[in-house]
């Protein structure tokens, strides 16, 4: 049959000039494209929702702002809400909502499950990980083995490990006291977080705090990987290709990420050893997340393999370091940049820590009112994930956002709906002067109601699994550093070095940023 078709078509084509064939193909493509555009603007289920027409027509609009302009679409979306209202269409397929009260309706519990949009899940390039799992039940099965490991109870039990790394951080800071040599707290905090999460999850600290310069190449490597997140969305086959390339080729293409690749190789060897000898270390303190994976009855058999374990490890390392380090860097800057905040926090810590060398237990630090307010305000300005988080409901969702074209909205089932933590945290009606660092806003009587709108770890079944560990690091590190040291900001500007300029899933300052640098007196 194929031969007959070729015999029928070939004589026809031989009689056509090449230019005619090209013109015919272009005409066909043009007619098809115009038809798609007309459908998306008039007949598509999302056609009634407001937003820029070009965004409704094509994802190239999103590609331009996120890929070519490097993570700028989220900031444009905030401006689009000012123009079009609280619910807008930001692509042919996706709606974005800015109303803070809708957050808990979108990011729900297991009784009202949501799936993840595959286009959004492709960002991380780890398709077998729980973070990139599309279906709710698949995500639940992959995440379940880790819930106990990262629970509040487990963090309290391993508090000594965390405080040990905080003490090492303080010893390193002590080396700069009175030297006049600037200290990069950006890299120091990143070294702390990578060492904590690597030992906590893998029973093997990376040792960044032992490096003379706090292993800056590690944070630069993670940043480089995150900057490729939008490329992964539009070209989801690219991460797999990169993983299969020889290391020397990867070094030529992106020398920064070879640090992560080499570490992944070490983790893979560690995982394989545990898989070969699952009973080894079970009676010791050297248990890792991989022991949990192998022994958990919840993890599907299909996921008990080296690829899955390695991808989970990659995500935990990247997320566990970058987000917490950014919070510490940002919050510490604002503490030092506000004399009243610094004085009040120091006063509270002097009472709680009469001997600065002795760090109180975590539960006591968590009960310090002003320290908690400072940390909450730090979360508001520096949430871990600022990218919009798209969820899909298989049922229609009513929304209270009437527009001239749609007095009552009913979002069609299977529609990707997203919200952004950054947008939520900068809502002026909730947080007056949203760019101002003001812990006092969380001290007034209505503060508990206000706190529910601060969602640095998101909500629902896909909230940040490492939030208890991150909170422990933040409380301990800030308390120890503020109580023990007198430091001043050195050649650090908020607009250049601190404020969020790029959305690479996690927040990132300008290209010229060198983070928070201080002099230790």
From TrEMBL:
Q: What is its cofactor?
A: heme
Taxonomy, superkingdom: Eukaryota
Secretion signal span: none
Classification of source organism = Eukaryota, Fungi, Dikarya, Ascomycota, Pezizomycotina
Transmembrane stretches in the record are: 20-39
> Family assignment?
Belongs to the cytochrome P450 family.
Protein's recorded name: Cytochrome P450
- Residues bound to heme: 464
A Gene Ontology molecular function term of the record: iron ion binding
Species of origin reads Zasmidium cellare ATCC 36951
Alphabetically sorted, this entry's keywords are: Heme, Iron, Membrane, Metal-binding, Monooxygenase, Oxidoreductase, Transmembrane, Transmembrane helix
What InterPro entries does the annotation carry? Cyt_P450 (IPR001128), Cyt_P450_E_grp-I (IPR002401), Cyt_P450_sf (IPR036396), Cytochrome_P450_monoxygenase (IPR050121)
Among Pfam families, the record links this protein to:
p450 (PF00067)
């Amino acid at each position: 049959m194929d031969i007959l078709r070729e015999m029928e078509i070939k004589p026809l084509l031989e009689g056509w000039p090449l230019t005619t064939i090209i013109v015919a193909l272009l005409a066909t493509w043009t007619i098809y494209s115009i038809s798609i555009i007309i459908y998306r603007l008039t007949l598509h289920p999302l056609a009634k929702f407001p937003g820029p027409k070009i965004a409704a027509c094509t994802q190239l609009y999103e590609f331009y702002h996120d890929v070519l302009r490097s993570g700028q679409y989220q900031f444009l979306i905030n401006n689009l809400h000012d123009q079009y209202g609280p619910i807008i269409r930001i692509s042919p397929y996706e709606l974005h909502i800015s109303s803070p009260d809708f957050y808990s309706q979108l990011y729900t519990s297991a009784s009202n499950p949501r799936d993840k949009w595959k286009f959004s899940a492709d960002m991380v390039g780890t398709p077998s990980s729980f973070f990139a799992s599309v279906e709710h039940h698949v995500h639940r099965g992959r995440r379940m083995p880790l819930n106990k490991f990262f629970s509040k109870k487990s963090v309290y039990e391993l508090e000594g490990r965390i405080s040990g790394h905080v003490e090492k951080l303080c010893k390193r800071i002590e080396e700069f006291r009175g030297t006049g040599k600037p200290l990069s707290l950006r890299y120091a905090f990143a070294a702390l977080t990578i060492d904590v999460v690597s030992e906590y999850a893998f029973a093997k600290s990376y040792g960044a705090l032992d490096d003379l310069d706090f292993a800056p190449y590690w944070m630069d490597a993670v940043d480089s990987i995150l900057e490729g997140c939008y490329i992964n969305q539009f070209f989801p086959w690219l991460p797999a290709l990169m993983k299969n390339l020889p290391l020397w080729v990867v070094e030529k293409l992106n020398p920064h990420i070879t640090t992560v690749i080499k570490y992944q190789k070490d983790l893979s060897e560690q995982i394989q050893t545990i898989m070969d000898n699952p009973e080894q270390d079970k009676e010791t303190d050297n248990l890792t997340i991989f022991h949990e994976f192998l022994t958990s009855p919840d993890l599907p058999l299909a996921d008990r393999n080296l690829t899955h374990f390695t991808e989970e490890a990659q995500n935990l390392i990247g997320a566990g370091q970058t987000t917490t380090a950014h919070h510490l860097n940002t919050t510490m800057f604002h503490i030092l940049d506000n004399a009243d905040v610094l004085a009040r926090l120091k006063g509270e810590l002097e009472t709680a820590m009469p001997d600065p060398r002795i760090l109180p237990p975590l539960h006591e630090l968590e009960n310090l009112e002003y320290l908690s307010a400072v940390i909450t305000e730090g979360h508001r300005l520096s949430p871990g994930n600022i990218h919009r988080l798209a969820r899909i409901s298989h049922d229609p969702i009513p929304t209270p956002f009437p527009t001239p074209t749609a007095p009552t909205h009913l979002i069609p089932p299977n529609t990707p709906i997203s919200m952004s933590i950054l947008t939520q945290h900068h809502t002026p009606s909730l947080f007056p002067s949203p760019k101002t660092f003001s812990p006092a806003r969380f001290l007034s009587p209505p503060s508990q109601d206000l706190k529910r709108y601060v969602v640095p770890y998101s909500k629902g079944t896909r909230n940040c699994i490492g939030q208890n560990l991150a909170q422990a690091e933040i409380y301990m590190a800030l308390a120890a550093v503020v109580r023990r040291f007198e430091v001043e900001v050195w050649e650090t500007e908020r607009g250049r070095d601190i404020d969020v300029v790029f959305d690479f899933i996690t927040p990132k300052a300008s290209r010229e940023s060198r983070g928070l640098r201080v002099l230790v007196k």
